[in-house]
Amino acid sequence: MIKVYDFFSGCGGASSGFQKAGFEIALGIDIDSDAAETFSQNFPEAAFINKDIRSLTPEDICEYVDKESKKLFCGCAPCQPFSKQNRNKSGDDVRINLLDEFYRFIEFYLPDYLFIENVPGIQKFEMGGSPLENFVSKLKECGYRIKTQVITASDYGVPQIRKRLILIGALNKEVYFPAPTHGENRSQPETVFSDWVYELPLLEAGETDPDDPDHCAAALTEKNLMRIKATPEGGSRTDWSDNLKLDCHKNHVGHTDVYGRLSRNKKCSTLTTKCISYSNGRYGHPVENRALSVREAACLQTFDRTFTFAGKLGSKAKQVGNAVPPLLAYNFGIVFNEMEMSSD
């Protein structure tokens, strides 16, 4: 069995998918204390280190690393420094160099397999060059066979327009990506909102389901409640009367996803750390007069409904938005299993 060591684990989206593919989750590492609690309550058999990776040495995790087992190191570092949504990019952002920190552990342990997910912008980061290019060069010097590709999560059953760069690597194995499973002329159709969000109790804005503390929705101001009531399913602020429009939007035609409602029969916008905020994207519920709940956002990220989140409302949303969709990781887990069984 392949053991997973999940660096920058967040709440454990990648680990959840790899676990479904038959892997053992051995260790999570993340600086965020709420994410650490979430990971530990969902993977109670795994160890967890709630520290900044920059403060750790490879020797610090020796007690958790099984030298005899096959190992997968997963390193999905924060994407915000490279995201096109980030208009305040800075070459001084300490998160830019986290791949180099991850490499210290790879070089020391030489795990059998590597999995990295990030936004496509990491390839074209202009402030001092792309950290990915240097990282890949060093991996190849260590003997890894590497493949990188920008994929669309909906091609693997995730109900989102979510493009991500994936890097996979292996020692002494040919590497390849899983074939897309969903979409036109494929084995299954793309999934949509209603395939993942169904039979959940109705909620008002600001309300929490007494039987599921993660099925909770953010409160709305009186004006925003009027706005969402004036927005049809799949609609946006362009459907509002003038008295509901913000001054900054009256002569602005872009960013129509802001204050938008989702559609039950369509894919969703990419979920971000603001995925339960009505004013930060197309995160309005299709028919209820509120934004998505944490549970609904987690469903759209393909988490099981038994997966629970720690922290306050904003922290839970951040964990969900930052996560690797488990279903995406599962598809790659199947491929890693195939590689392991091959004789190459």
TrEMBL record:
- Print the keywords alphabetically: Methyltransferase, Restriction system, S-adenosyl-L-methionine, Transferase
What stretch or stretches form a coiled coil here? none
One GO molecular-function entry = DNA binding
Identify the EC number(s).
2.1.1.37
Q: Does the keyword Methyltransferase apply?
A: yes
The residues responsible for catalysis, as annotated, are 79
UniProt record, GO biological process: DNA restriction-modification system; methylation; negative regulation of gene expression via chromosomal CpG island methylation
Catalytic activity, per the record?
a 2'-deoxycytidine in DNA + S-adenosyl-L-methionine = a 5-methyl-2'-deoxycytidine in DNA + S-adenosyl-L-homocysteine + H(+)
Similarity comment: family membership: Belongs to the class I-like SAM-binding methyltransferase superfamily. C5-methyltransferase family.
Q: What name has this protein been given in UniProt?
A: Cytosine-specific methyltransferase
Q: Which organism is it from?
A: Acetobacterium wieringae
